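Quick illustration for those who missed Monday's session on complexes.
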Amino acid sequence: MTAWDRVGPLRVEAVSLTEVALPLVAPFVTAHGRESHRRFWLVGVHAGGVTGWAESVAQEEPLYSEETHATLHDVVVRHLVPRLLREPITDPADVAVRLSPIRHHPMAKASVEMAVWDWYGRAAGVSLGAHWGGTRPEAPAGVVVGISASVADLVDTVGAHVAAGYRRVKIKIQPGWDLEPLQALRSTWPSLALWADANSSYTLGDAARLAQLDRMNLGLLEQPLGPDDLVDHATLQRRMTTPVCLDESIRSLQDARQALQLGACRVINVKPARVGGFGPALAIHALARDHGVPLWCGGMLESGVGRAANLQLARQEGFTLPGDLSASARYFHEDLVDPPFVLTPRGTLAIPTGPGIGVAPHPDRLRRFQVGAVEWLRR
Ligand code: MG
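Prediction with magnesium ion bound:
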């Protein structure tokens, strides 16, 4: 008897989509572009007086992946929700299987799959992270710093985050913004846990330059090459000692399995929303454990709803490295959840322990930050 048997089958009565635009504290710049708002769909799965929530992560332009804010809406409305409404669901782990005939679109799938998991957790009164076997009460927090206007600005920004208590700093790099800023940070903080994320902005032709990063004592180099370049990543990893970590390349369990078989990475950044939801993310967690590969939980500038979901995953034992899990104030003046996430004196975030993902959108804030009317899809 599982916790879900007590709940019984989920007959989804309605799915709601609310478009939200949360202003960012400051524009966030990466090799993929610049964002001033975090715009997303808040997906609600409604049944039996319980609502499960999830937040979409596809960006407005197809720069991080081919999915966009608009394509995600189209796929959810036309192809995924009808499959949710068609027959009852008896286990949230089955949702990813039910949606699998639809090719790719992992972010769209995740936005409904994760809402179903949250519904089950709330209906059963069970915290998802605990249900999956996680025991950690808090997760080490890392911070990400976008491409800065100057090296001096970068050092100032990183200094503020280190002073705030972040245990690990990751900076975005791209050709022309790599060795010099990293060297400046390394000289200023010789023992800081320092990572670099290139967001696919290099090619294998840059291998000699990337190998110079080995002198910087980085914890990892994230996604240096293209999303589809698993073979090139394996070649690059053989040429450098810094562990290569994959992000954009891992869009499914199969991607993770093939990357590990090829030796394309030594670390994986897991974002449940990038791999199709919690089910595939948990399968990657099991695979990585079998390979002895460390994991950490990435982020997509999520509001507190998505952050809470990521933290439930980061509660699992395989997530041994600090995630891109920052306090709400890192990105937002006001989060969609209340209270906001804050950094503990230990440089960690407390993992919510309530049912489901442990937080829900604050109704007043949702009204204030929502764009247009709520869209309802019913059986
Ligand atoms: Mg990344």
